[in-house]
Amino acid sequence: MAWAYLARVAEPPCAAVIALVDAIGPVDAASAIRRRSVPDGFGAVLPATAARHDADCATADLDAAAAVGARLVTRSDAEWPAWSLLALSQADTAARGGAPLALWVRGPARLDELVTDSVALIGSRAASPYGAHVTGLLAAGLAGEGFTVISGGAFGVDGAAHKAVVRSGGVTAAVMACGIDRDYPAAHSALLGEIARTGAVISEYPPGTTAARHRFLTRNRLVASLSGGTVVVEAGRRSGAANTAAWARKLGRPLGAVPGPVTSATSVGCHRMIADGLAVLVSDVASVVALVRPDGGGDVGRGRTKPTDGLSEDELRVHDAIPARGGVTIEEIAFAAGLEIGAARTALARLEVGGLVENVAGQWRLASG
Amino acid sequence: MAWAYLARVAEPPCAAVIALVDAIGPVDAASAIRRRSVPDGFGAVLPATAARHDADCATADLDAAAAVGARLVTRSDAEWPAWSLLALSQADTAARGGAPLALWVRGPARLDELVTDSVALIGSRAASPYGAHVTGLLAAGLAGEGFTVISGGAFGVDGAAHKAVVRSGGVTAAVMACGIDRDYPAAHSALLGEIARTGAVISEYPPGTTAARHRFLTRNRLVASLSGGTVVVEAGRRSGAANTAAWARKLGRPLGAVPGPVTSATSVGCHRMIADGLAVLVSDVASVVALVRPDGGGDVGRGRTKPTDGLSEDELRVHDAIPARGGVTIEEIAFAAGLEIGAARTALARLEVGGLVENVAGQWRLASG
């Protein structure tokens, strides 16, 4: 009851309330706020809670949450994703939206498990058919690799991501700018129900809260912080996705962007992020996995745990220049690899010693093993 | 006559012959090679010229060139693009293809003027419709900015680049892997004629030389070195364009790559170059100009010589968030810019002082001036 009261008494995020709770516990904090009498040093709590301190909706909020199968997860709960949210508490980020006090969660997924291997797929609400298609490919592929796909439940890229994961039987989480009992947008009512059935619909805002512009910005920081990395699939010149992307960078999380046709307005933001060195170009599931798991830990990353590991640039090019079936001459290899004959010969010799290629009747082919 | 003899007597590029010419001049060099008697220290010339030293085709070559309106431009000529080719003579590149001794040039363009503002547009022979379209946009746009567009005269991206420049009345140069009198590919015969009418068809190989695989690799270094920068518009996983791109990097020239749909096989090479940090993502004429003229010198580069020069990131975002017509509230601006209200207010104040925005009846708009 105290947590539910505290979760509504100030517009989240409110660092002052969190500091008070950390100092004297939620029950005493709720009581102090109600009585308008807080310990020395916590004076900032009073103006932040002035408007709502005497409207206690705790019971109603918990009932409303229960009615849609949701629960309140707090900073004191075992499943609290403290590690993911840690960066939000750091000095330079806290000023623009610190860690949340609590999160309303609708769905069976545990927050700490949800964030363990997670990627945010975000982008334009007005996604192009290309953007929606690529979002679906990435979302289903990442779900297949065991990742939680996190997004914002909106039209466009968000919706395409959630839908593809739901269809593929994976886990997806929608972080909302409104209460977990408000289906926003309304047309996503059924989709949000599906997400909540196996994953999680998450919000920092109490039940009944309506989506408002400033809440999207506040919500964006949660999308970025709950995810191991963020990928912008499509974004126009002034997309809101740029804000989530900026949060990912501020929090030190990997940021990727998917390229598209340079003739497409919905790829302009992605291209700019890549060209400006803010985002890494990602083009498929493997490159996203490599982005968020730079130390490996998967067998999807490019070249990782492959027999071609550790090859030099020339050797890789020569290896790539040999077709999967059949043999080719050294001249054909040198040409395809863009190497001088001598360099190709050196690389072939090393690859042969390494057992990767073999010479059969004067033609080079990939080793049958 | 001596230069024409020397241009054929060894398969180009031949550093030994160039060294001899530099030491004793072309007439004595030709004579020494014919007599098989070279000065001490130039012994490498003999094996390189063994096969062709007694077949003097100089007259025939000059006649064949003249027949197609071509001339032989040598290292001693005023129009020799010595500065562009300098990097080819440096130790680490010379081993894989040094500077040329001479170039056969068909067309009115002077080589030194041709290379002054030049960009190579290269890519897959099997360009997609998207690739051909974007190539045309870039080529015509660069020609309109006064750039020479250099390519290899091949099908696909090369052809689309040349064609767009010819149509737009600009100057384009095709660097060939065969003699300037061989129309290769044959289907580009008319196009090569058009290129030669206003620009240049260029080759290091004597008239009559047929295209051969190793000559494409050798030719690629000339495309890269004659250009102020190279842009790969489309390239598959094993495109020959990767070789030209590698030359551009080796020569210290800017390298750009155009992104495309991640679902397109002909963009895989471009995406890989960008993701690996080998190429800069370029998406339009302005970004190509910015690539090859990093110090400015044009008014096309992004933001260059614009009133928004020198703005901070926040100020730019706020400026971008204000529509071209009509006013918006600070809340709308903060949302579109992905900024807190306070940060947006600070940026607006600075923009107002700078005369870029104005506040009319509580709404912000771009300054009418």
From TrEMBL, chains A, B:
PANTHER family, sorted: PROTEIN SMF
Family membership: Belongs to the DprA/Smf family.
InterPro entries: DprA, DrpA_SLOG
Record-annotated Smf/DprA SLOG domain positions: 72-290
Protein name, per record: DNA processing protein
Gene: dprA
SUPFAM superfamilies assigned: MCP/YpsA-like (SSF102405)
